[in-house]
Amino acid sequence: MLLRGVLHEASGVRVVSDDLEAEDFREQAKVFKALQSEVRLKLLKEVSERQPVSAPELHDAFEVTKESIKKNLNQLEEAGLLRSSRERGPGNRPRDEFVLAYGESGVMVQLDVVPDDYDFYLGESDVASPL
C-alpha cells in the first residue's frame, strides 16, 4: 500500500511523506516524533550547516542545557536523521560528533527554512550524499 501524507503543525511545520509502505509506519513515526520539537528542528538545521559538530559546540546557539542538547541529538540519531562518531576533543577528551545521516536510514529529509516556516519533504532515499 503506497500512501502520501501531509502533517501540518500549528507551529508552521509542514511534513510531507511520499510513497510510504504501511509496514514502515513505525519507523516513520520515529521521524515525525523527532521533528515535533522546535529544539530538534533547530538542531537539525545547525548540524546541517556546521557538520561535523559536537553537543558542546552547539550549546552556545541554544538556551537549553548541554544535557538537553545531547538528549535531543540522540533522539535525532535514533530516528535515523543524524549519525555520530566518537572523536577526541579539546584535552584529548572523547566526544560524539554529529553529521546528517544521508541515505543511511532510507529516509530523505529536505529542510527549507524560511523565516517562521519550515518545510520537510520525507521519502525513501538511496542517495549517499547531500542533494
Automatic annotation (TrEMBL):
Q: Name one GO molecular function term.
A: DNA-binding transcription factor activity
Q: Kindly indicate whether the keyword Nuclease belongs to this entry.
A: no
List, for all copies, the residue spans of the domain called HTH arsR-type. 30-123
Q: Which UniProt keywords apply?
A: DNA-binding, Transcription, Transcription regulation
State the InterPro entries in the record: ArsR-like_HTH, HTH_ArsR_DNA-bd_dom, Metal_resp_trans_reg, WH-like_DNA-bd_sf, WH_DNA-bd_sf
Protein name per UniProt: HTH arsR-type domain-containing protein
| Species of the source | Halarchaeum rubridurum
